[in-house]
């Protein structure tokens, strides 16, 4: 039971929901950048939502499926195709042994997620299968996937639903149902993404102009953006007076401003502490949106309160619960 | 107040739709249009859109969406009915192109719409080869099981 990497793509790594509990030792959290898409991909194949998946970036891999596999692809659209035939996202897909799953042109978003039934049979390091790229910890040998890698699959009991798909497969190399889960982030034709933020405790230390412009002007996601954080460019954000800070904890979505005035949004591979003043904190509900903005994309920040952010977060979790139940009904074959 | 032309327009639209009963209450004017007991104008034959006979889809099966219209229509009109309950959407996601539009030719396996229930989107296929004659519901409508969605002039 394994998947062989024929070509690795630009940055393809194993990620789960992250390595929590070790930031006090300086070990970063890592994990999938778009946790929503990661969770949905797992739910679609009947896994625990935090199981390890393959995260691919901008240019996807080519994978040889060495067994019959139930898989699901979510997140950004990298034109997935099985044996040359396009396959849809957001659904469980049963694929015949010996098929090649190849990702092509990026159509939308930035990152795509591939979950397989049973997950990947790789060891947990400090409780997580996520790849910590800079430290070479976790995931598949602590690194991004390379050509020739063989990823062992975990064992899971067969789903009644997979049996049903197998019957509909006929002579095709794959089969999928007529239902799907919609994409997480909003498609924005204008190339400007709205990201809701909560002003940070250091927000008042920024100049009145900077505070206004932060919400008024769009910021460009520069090419110096990666899993650690997005470096933005736009108007230069300035403090009213210089500030000497002792490094303090930073969180997923913290927006810090180095002296050059260009903000940095900290993401999955963020450092554990930061010494730059923090202007705002991205709402948890919009982290997945951020994760799907590719370099060259534009962000416009919108101010919300902590209470609003919590309400949005709770609503998103309720949505995921509903999706989980709906998918479980489908996978158990009890729904019509 | 609605103008005479607006009233005419409303009557025309209701007449051409599958709506059987229509009420509009706006400021000081009220319009009630009821087509109960009246034959469908387009066909001119004693055809009434009765609750279509629904073939219950087998568990997790592809939706079985085709039923016949009762009576003896002069042209072969098929009704695509809803295989489930849910919210009707004409496109796969906001901003995307509609799956089909009136006047478009469809094959049996052409997806005509999606119905959303519990955040899952269920694709509905035409189930018949032909031309879409009319869309009977609007984007965002909540659809009941077995509710007619489209009329298709089938090629037989």
Description:
- The complex is a heterodimer of chains A (336) and B (156).
- Chain A is an alpha+beta fold.
- Chain A folds into two domains: 2-184 and 319-332, no CATH class; 192-304, Beta Barrel (Cyclophilin), CATH 2.40.100.
- In chain A, 18% of the residues lie in helices and 27% in strands.
- In chain A, strands 14-21-18-19-16-15-22 form a seven-stranded mixed β-barrel.
- In chain A, strand 6 and strand 7 (85-86) form a beta hairpin.
- In chain A, helix 1 (35-44) packs parallel to helix 5 (306-332).
- By secondary structure, chain B is mostly beta strands.
- Chain B starts with a helix and ends with a strand.
- Chain B contains one helix and eleven strands, in the order αβββββββββββ.
- Chain B has one helix at 4-16, and strands at residues 21-26, 29-34, 66-68, 77-81, 86-89, 105-106, 111-117, 120-125, 130-135, 142-143, 148-154.
- Chain B has two domains: 4-34, no CATH class; 66-154, Beta Barrel (OB fold (Dihydrolipoamide Acetyltransferase, E2P)), CATH 2.40.50.
- Chain B is globular.
- Classes of the chains: A alpha+beta (336), B mainly beta (156).
- The A-B interface holds A 161, 164, 168, 177-183, 186-187, 189, 319, 322-323, 325-327, 330, 333-336 and B 56-63, 83-84, 92-96, 116-123, 125.
What is the strand and helix layout of this fold?
The complex is a heterodimer of chains A (336) and B (156).
Chain A: E1 2-7, E2 13-15, H1 35-44, E3 53-57, E4 62-65, E5 69-77, E6 81-82, E7 85-86, E8 92-95, E9 100-102, E10 108-116, E11 150-152, H2 160-169, E12 174-175, E13 179-181, E14 192-199, H3 208-216, E15 219-221, E16 229-233, E17 248-249, E18 254-256, E19 264-266, E20 273-274, E21 278-282, H4 287-291, E22 298-303, H5 306-332
Parallel strand pairs in A: 14-22
Antiparallel strand pairs in A: 1-4, 1-11, 2-3, 3-10, 4-9, 5-8, 5-10, 6-7, 6-9, 8-12, 14-21, 15-16, 15-22, 16-19, 17-20, 18-19, 18-21
Chain B: H1 4-16, E1 21-26, E2 29-34, E3 66-68, E4 77-81, E5 86-89, E6 105-106, E7 111-117, E8 120-125, E9 130-135, E10 142-143, E11 148-154
Antiparallel strand pairs in B: 1-2, 3-4, 4-11, 5-7, 5-10, 6-9, 7-8, 9-11
